[in-house]
Amino acid sequence: MPKNKSTQTLKELGKDVAAQAEKSQNPKIEVPIRALSNINFDQKSRTLVLGDKKAERYFFNVAHAKKFLQTIEIASVSKNLLEEEKHASLRDVFYMAKRTIPGTNINLVDEQSESDSVIEDLELVTGMSREQLNISANKLGSVAGKVVIKDKGDTIDWSKMGSGGWSIPSAVEEIEFKKVDADYVLYMEKAAVWERLNEDKFWNKHNCIIISSQGQTTRGIRRLLQRLYEEKKIPIYVLCDFDPWGAYIYSVIKYGSISLAHASERLTIPSVKYLGITAQDIEKYDLKKHLIKLKDTDVARIKQVSEYEWFKDNKAWQIQFKKMKEMNAKAEIQALSARGISFISEKYLPEKIKNKDLLD
C-alpha cells in the first residue's frame, strides 16, 4: 500500500471519529476480536484466519475510554511518521505515546505491551500492516547464502557479510532479489546454531540459505521466508528443539498464529517441512544422556500444542508428543555437539536432507 494511501486511511479514521462527536454521538471504533473464540483453521488454505466478530470501543465508557484514547494516539503517531517519511521502533512508539492524560494523573500508556497491543488493533482497524504504518520491530535475525539483494538502493551480498551475517529488518517488502542461488532455505530458532553453520560455511557447501532468529520467529523473518518460497520456489526446512515450544515455532511458520491470524495471508507457508530434532534422532544418534527433564510447564504445553487442530490428527506429530511424555524429557539442537562440534553440519543435516527425513 502506497504511503499516501496509508496516511489517507488514518485520516479517514480520525474524520470518522470526529464526525461522530460533531453529531453528539458517543464516538466509537470497531475492532475485530483477536482471541481464540474468533480464530478459525481454514482446512482449504491450511492456515489460521480471523473470524468476523468485532468489538465496539466507546469513548464515553469507563471500561473503554483509555483503550479508545490509546488507539487514537497511536494512529496519530503513525500518521506523523508517514507524513515525515520516518520509521519508529515499537519502543520509540511507546515513549512517543507515554504521557499523562491532561487533567488527570493517569498515563496514556504505562507499559510497552499496551502500545504493542494497540498497534496490532490498529492493523485490524485500518487493514494495514505494522510496517505500512512505519512502525518496526527490533532486528532479531541473521541470514547467509548465495543471494544478492537490493535494499533502499544498496546492493547487498548475503555471502559476504562475515561472521554475523546480514541482519534481517522487520520490513522486507521493498527488498528486491537480484540473484538467488539455493536449493533450499534452512531456518533455525537458535542464533548459536546458525553461527555454527555459518562458521562451517554450511550454506556454501550445500548450496542453501541459512536463517535464524532468537527463539520465536519475527514477522520480518516469516515474510522473508514466505517471499523466498513464493517468488523463488525454494523449499523451506525448519530446525527446532525437540520440545513443545519447537513444535509451536514450526506451526507458527506453517499455519500462522492466533495473535497474527489477520496477517496469515502474507506470513504463512503451508508447505514448510520440519527437519529436526525428533524422537527418532535421539535414538539414532544416541542422545539419551543429553536430554533435559520436562518441567510442569513443558508437560502442560505438550498437551495444549498436541490438541491444536492441525496437530491432533497428524499421526507423525502425535508420535513425537507421545515420545516426549514417555521420555519425560526434551532435547536441544545443541545436544548434537556431544557428537562433535561440527557434527550437525557435517553429518546430521546432510543425512536428514539427503534422506528427506522430514515431518509435515
Structure notes:
Helices cover 41% and strands 18% of the residues. With 360 residues, it is an alpha/beta fold. The protein has two domains: 3-136, Arc Repressor Mutant, subunit A; 142-354, Dna Topoisomerase Vi A Subunit, Chain: A, domain 2, CATH 3.40.1360. The strands form six sheets. A six-stranded mixed beta sheet has the order 10-7-13-12-14-15, sandwiched between helices. Helix 8 (244-255) links the parallel strand 14 (236-239) and strand 15 (273-276). The chain is globular. The mean pLDDT is 91.
Largest sheet: 6 strands, mixed
> How many distinct folded domains?
2
Strands in their spatial order, largest beta sheet: 10-7-13-12-14-15
- Share of residues in strands: 15-25%
Return the CATH topology of the largest domain.
Dna Topoisomerase Vi A Subunit, Chain: A, domain 2
Give the class from helix and strand content and strand pairing: alpha/beta
Give a quick summary of the entry.
The chain has 360 residues and is α/β, with parallel strands linked by helices. The chain has 13 helices and 17 strands.
What is this structure's SSE topology?
Elements: H1 3-22, E1 28-32, E2 39-42, E3 47-50, E4 54-58, H2 65-84, E5 88-89, H3 90-97, H4 112-126, E6 135-136, E7 142-144, E8 146-151, E9 154-157, E10 166-167, E11 176-181, E12 184-188, H5 191-199, H6 202-205, E13 208-212, H7 219-232, E14 236-239, H8 244-255, E15 273-276, H9 279-284, E16 292-293, H10 296-306, H11 309-312, H12 315-327, E17 329-330, H13 343-354
Parallel strand pairs: 5-6, 12-13, 12-14, 14-15
Antiparallel strand pairs: 1-4, 2-3, 7-10, 7-13, 8-9, 8-11, 16-17
Helix pairs in contact: 1-2, 2-4, 3-4, 8-10, 10-12
